[in-house]
């Protein structure tokens, strides 16, 4: 029954956030037939919410800054399961990418000498941790993501990129050889379903923070690319690694940038004590995010939390003065007033660690090529499939991402994927066409929803999934609780498979999109849960009461989750940078 | 009890010959919810309700709509800011074609944005590092670059309603001035030449609805005034 209309491109980029737009820009400039397919108009993508900046050794705040120091911080921040070849690539190529953004028009804040303003962020050091706090995060006030995303969109307009805006990618299409040859896509406006044929399919679908009840993430962050790749049978890497940002606004979940602490703000408990001095005597409030988030939870658990329920802490900013707040953190002032009813110039902001970022994702090499494992456990390239940005796990973030490294990841690896695909297209790519049954396979789940005649509703199931994840896979984890979570998810999967789409209409049917998104949340949640249960150690963001120590003997490895068997294997971490010495694992203190 | 009366514009092109207002009762439990939260509760009652949303924190610009007669973003508009007599009326942004319910076709709005060439143009070769810009020159972009393209302003503008094809509208002109004001942009002459007709800029009558509704507190009228000054200075 696959008499679908097809659209044909050299490359289809699924996702219109920072990484997708950067990849698209590279391909559009090369003249390749490139389309960006995005479920929202591109400037509504979640990159727009990034605040504090893009971390990069452009040597503006400190003329002696060195990308190798940034690389050291990144590897240490990731608790040593950061791939060192990837971190090397990102940190060394970074300045080029940031200067490109500036040349494209990004309105960075400036120092008096006219260079790009840089602020201190967590986990940053000079001289490989020996030279004190660095200021390496390039900022456009506290709206860097907005400025970056709009700049990239604008430059795609300039270069005539084709946009399929408000189209939803349903599933990958694989041919008989297992190569990815495009996707099934739904026009949200009209309800038309098409087969998008492409020689390169790039998953730039961002994160999936909506698997948790409390998250800084946009409502659209439902892990669509992860879900598609898992359903297509491809493995996921390090899915247990979820970052909880120390400062989500209590109750609302809205992000308050680490830049607040970079500019001199700090956290206090109910006694007014600057408690991070006890947990991280050197870096204090600018320790790694995992460290700060755990410290906050400890304060709350030990009865020093703020508020009636004692379930949050305060971020103090009033001492910075209205001028600094107005100049450097205007967006935070606005968000705090709106969502916490607190004017940070006068009173502290109530904050709590909140799900923020997925370090794991589709394993890729530095060119964005998706990787799977052959029967002998060797890396094998997935033909036709690429990933970049938060959906990918290249892995520059390891077990814990440093603040400001996500925006750098987007532009460096979006660009790298674009360049690689351009080269591959020039050399010629020729995959077998998808057959009718291949296309039917990719249509299966949408057909399931469209034919559903009864069952539970999507919002209720989604809320249940989010509660399971929140309760069993939060900042601190423990075997029994996680086992319980895994079991509940397995049961929930059965119910979601029989859930009901009541509205079958075609025009702008957001209920259908939300149903399709729920399938993806389910895939991401289950991969996260099973991988978390399997990693029997504490490393970076993955912190277990029952295994409180890092176990480098058994777990200096990536986890690899295989969806068909729902089993977790391991993959080697790269310790072979090309131009610098390996950073050997050390005890991680701040 | 704290039951809010909500009246919402409904239209599904497949089943409705004409739009109509539908009444909902929403239990708020006395909480000062955002309008977006109210819509989410309504969608749980009636999954066919269509609206756009993404960031839910006022930075992505998806959920511009008309709430009790005034344009704004549903996600950062608290009920206490907008509800009168326990009644909330939600309509799509005025002046644009409705696709379904609260979802409008923003094509003409985006077309006007694209028309002003919303990207930095600089014909000199780029340096190996960033182009330098003084903090004072950078300050000139404040109040301009923060636009989120929500269309609250342009769809509150009578001049845009009358001439959406020819008048660029407040959002497009704000972005036009964002590049005219950028010390790094060298296309000032071309940009102005493209606006030098009776409609593109001069249809602005200074009504200032745009300023009244901008959820980011921006001032398109002031930017339009600056463009007028540049155009007039150019002409003499």
For the structure shown, list the relevant keywords.
A: 590 residues; alpha/beta; Flavocytochrome C3, Chain A, domain 1; Methane Monooxygenase Hydroxylase, Chain G, domain 1; 8-stranded mixed beta sheet; 4-stranded antiparallel beta sheet; 16 helices; 22 strands; globular; B: 236 residues; alpha+beta; Ubiquitin-like (UB roll); Fumarate Reductase Iron-sulfur Protein, Chain B, domain 2; 5-stranded mixed beta sheet; two-stranded antiparallel sheet; 9 helices; elongated
Structure description:
The complex is a heterodimer of chains A (590) and B (236). With 590 residues, chain A is of the alpha/beta class. Among the domains of chain A are: 243-357, Flavocytochrome C3, Chain A, domain 1; 452-562, Methane Monooxygenase Hydroxylase, Chain G, domain 1 (Up-down Bundle). Helix content of chain A is 35%, strand content 21%. Chain A has 16 helices and 22 strands. In chain A, strand 8 (180-187) and strand 9 (193-203) form a beta hairpin. The model of chain A has no long low-confidence stretch (mean pLDDT 97). Chain B is elongated. Chain B has helices at residues 35-45, 79-82, 107-115, 135-139, 158-162, 169-180, 188-194, 209-213, 220-235; strands spanning 3-10, 20-27, 64-67, 70-73, 87-91, 98-100, 103-104. Chain B is 31% helix and 14% strand. Chain B is built from 9 helices and 7 strands; from the N terminus they run ββαββαβββααααααα. The longest helix of chain B has 16 residues, at 220-235. In chain B, a hairpin with a 2-residue loop joins strand 6 (98-100) and strand 7.
């Amino acid at each position: 029954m696959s008499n679908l209309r097809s659209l044909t491109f050299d490359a289809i980029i699924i996702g219109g956030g920072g990484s997708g737009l950067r990849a698209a820009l590279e391909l559009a400039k090369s003249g390749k037939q490139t389309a960006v397919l995005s479920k929202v108009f591109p400037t509504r993508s979640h990159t727009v919410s990034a605040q504090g900046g893009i971390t990069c050794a452009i040597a503006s705040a400190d003329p002696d800054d060195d990308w190798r120091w940034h690389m050291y911080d990144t590897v240490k921040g990731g608790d040593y399961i950061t791939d060192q070849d990837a971190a090397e690539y990102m940190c060394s190529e970074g300045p080029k990418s940031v200067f490109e953004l500036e040349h494209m028009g990004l309105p960075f804040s400036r120092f008096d000498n006219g260079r790009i303003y840089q602020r201190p962020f967590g986990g940053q050091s000079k001289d490989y941790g020996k030279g004190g706090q660095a200021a390496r995060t390039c900022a456009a006030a506290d709206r860097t993501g907005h400025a970056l995303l709009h700049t990239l969109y604008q430059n795609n307009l300039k270069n005539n990129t084709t946009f399929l805006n408000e189209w939803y990618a349903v599933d990958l299409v694989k041919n008989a050889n297992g190569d990815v040859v495009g996707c099934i896509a739904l026009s949200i406006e009209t309800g038309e379903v098409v087969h998008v044929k492409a020689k390169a399919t790039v998953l730039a679908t961002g994160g999936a923070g909506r698997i948790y009840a409390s998250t800084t993430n946009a409502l659209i962050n439902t892990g669509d690319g992860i879900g598609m790749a898992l359903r297509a049978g491809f493995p996921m890497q390090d899915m247990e690694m979820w970052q909880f940002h120390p400062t989500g606004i209590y109750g609302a979940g809205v992000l308050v940038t680490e830049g607040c602490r970079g500019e001199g703000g700090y956290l206090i408990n109910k006694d007014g004590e600057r408690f991070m001095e006890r947990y991280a005597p050197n870096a204090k409030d600018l320790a790694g995010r995992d460290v700060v988030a755990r410290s906050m939870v400890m304060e709350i658990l030990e009865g020093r939390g703020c508020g009636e329920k004692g379930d949050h802490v305060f971020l103090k900013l009033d001492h910075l003065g209205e001028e600094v707040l107005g100049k450097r953190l205007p967006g935070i002032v606005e968000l705090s007033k709106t969502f916490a009813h607190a004017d940070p110039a006068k009173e502290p902001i109530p904050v709590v660690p909140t799900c923020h970022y997925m370090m794991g994702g589709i394993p890729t090499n530095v060119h964005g090529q998706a990787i799977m494992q052959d029967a002998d456990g060797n890396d094998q390239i997935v033909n036709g499939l690429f990933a970049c940005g938060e959906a990918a796990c290249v892995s520059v973030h390891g077990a814990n991402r440093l603040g400001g490294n996500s925006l750098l990841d987007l532009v460096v690896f979006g660009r790298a994927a674009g360049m690689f695909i351009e080269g591959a297209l020039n050399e010629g790519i020729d995959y077998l066409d998808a057959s009718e049954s291949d296309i039917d396979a990719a249509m299966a789940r949408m057909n399931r929803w469209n034919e559903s005649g009864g069952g539970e509703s999507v919002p209720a199931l989604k809320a249940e999934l989010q509660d399971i994840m929140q309760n069993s896979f939060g900042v601190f984890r423990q075997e029994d609780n996680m086992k319980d979570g895994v079991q509940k998810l397995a049961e929930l999967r059965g119910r979601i498979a029989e859930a009901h789409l009541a509205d079958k209409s075609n025009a702008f049917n957001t209920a259908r999109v939300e149903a399709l998104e729920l399938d993806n949340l389910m895939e991401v949640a289950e991969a996260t849960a099973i991988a978390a249960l399997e990693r029997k150690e504490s490393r970076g963001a993955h912190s277990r009461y029952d295994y409180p120590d890092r176990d480098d003997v058994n777990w200096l490895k990536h986890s690899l989750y295989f969806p068909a068997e729902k089993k977790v294997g391991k993959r080697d971490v790269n310790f072979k940078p090309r131009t610098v010495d390996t950073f050997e694992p050390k005890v991680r203190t701040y | 009890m704290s039951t809010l009366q909500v009246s919402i514009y409904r239209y599904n092109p497949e089943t409705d010959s004409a739009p109509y207002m539908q009444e909902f009762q929403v239990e708020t439990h006395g909480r000062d919810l955002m309008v977006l939260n109210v819509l989410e509760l309504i969608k749980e009652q009636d999954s066919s309700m269509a609206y756009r949303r993404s960031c839910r924190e006022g930075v992505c610009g998806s959920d511009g709509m008309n709430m009790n007669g005034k344009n704004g973003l549903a996600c950062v508009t608290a009920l206490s800011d907008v509800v009168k007599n326990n009644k909330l009326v939600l309509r799509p942004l005025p002046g644009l074609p409705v696709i379904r319910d609260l979802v409008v076709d923003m094509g003409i709005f985006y077309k006007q944005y694209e028309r002003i060439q919303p990207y930095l143009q600089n014909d000199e070769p780029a340096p190996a590092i960033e182009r330098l810009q003084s903090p004072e020159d950078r300050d000139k972009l404040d109040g301009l670059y923060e636009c989120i393209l929500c269309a609250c302003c342009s769809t509150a503008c009578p001049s845009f309603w009358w001439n959406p094809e020819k008048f660029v509208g407040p959002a497009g002109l704000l972005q036009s001035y964002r590049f005219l004001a950028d010390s790094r942009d060298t296309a000032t002459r071309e940009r102005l030449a493209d606006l030098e007709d009776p409609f593109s800029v001069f249809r602005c009558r200074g009504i200032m609805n745009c300023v009244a509704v901008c959820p980011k507190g921006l001032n398109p009228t002031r930017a339009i005034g600056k463009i007028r000054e540049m155009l007039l200075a150019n002409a003499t």
